[in-house]
Amino acid sequence: MVRIDGTAVAAKVIDEIKVRVATLAARGVTPGLAVVLVGDNPASRAYVRSKDKKAAELGLFSLKKELPTTTSQDELLRLVAELNADPRIHGILVQSPPPPHIDESAIVRAIDPRKDVDGFHPENVAKLALEDPTGFVPCTPLGCLRLLEAAGIATAGKHAVVVGRSMIVGKPMALLLMRRGTDATVTIAHSRTRDLPAITRQADILIAALGKPLFLTAEHVKEGAVVIDVGINRISDSAHPKGYRLVGDVDFESVAPRCAAITPVPGGVGPMTIAMLMQNCVQAAEATPAG
Ligand code: NDP
Question: How many Å lie between the centroid of ligand 1 and the Cα of residue 19?
Fold first, then answer.
């Protein structure tokens, strides 16, 4: 069994990005990323902190905007409009989920699609479906694909089963796997799928993105499958100094012995998501006309 090391692959991606950042610097361009957080969700705060830190490490211009939970939809839309117009900013990300009084899809639609480095704007969703490479692809599924490539896993003609149909992970993952050049045969499962184990056991490549801690066990996985575990779940653990630990959607212990390759949690998909965000931000800066 190969344990796919997301931290190592992400470090390689970051090295590639450094070269692109240096090329942009020679043109007088510094990629700029604005990360907006509304409210004080601790997991969101941690994600925003690590995105801001990684951007700064790479020499990007990084703008972190932390707004109180009471921020209105109009205030947030005004900030997005300012960032759309700010020439220092090439990428804008509003951390999900916002507080319940904010209409997330209205915020996503307000972001200039050329600065939508999360790849959530309808224009970028359409470009992914159209296989138009000028769009932005959501970071987590893009990271999963890169992990498969880095581990040397062939996808053409393979049966990939994606468990989860969210716009952030499941759907774009399925589109990426089926597009020309990747060429997997894709099945998407969700909470209404009947007899999930019978479906997932057909997978040569199983992508777990359902948000249920340790849900997929040995009975869901065929011998020799490749498993990519997108899940990040906190479960309480009194033995851990923080009182909790992170686990995936896959029960690593029972599943790993059956697999040809598997990603751990943490240290699998997580670090790739941030690396891909940086890559998208650099792509946005590269696409900006000079002057
Ligand atoms: P969502 O809650 O938006 O979507 C979960 C999906 O899983 C839904 O489509 C849901 O089906 C499906 N599902 C739920 N329960 C079952 C079940 N019992 N059987 C089959 N399908 C089920 O989650 P996200 O897509 O945003 O995230 C998924 C996981 O990935 C989470 O653990 C999240 O924390 C993690 N994540 C990790 C990232 C990373 O960087 N590694 C980034 C983003 C997310 P239905 O549509 O029918 O409700």
Answer: 34
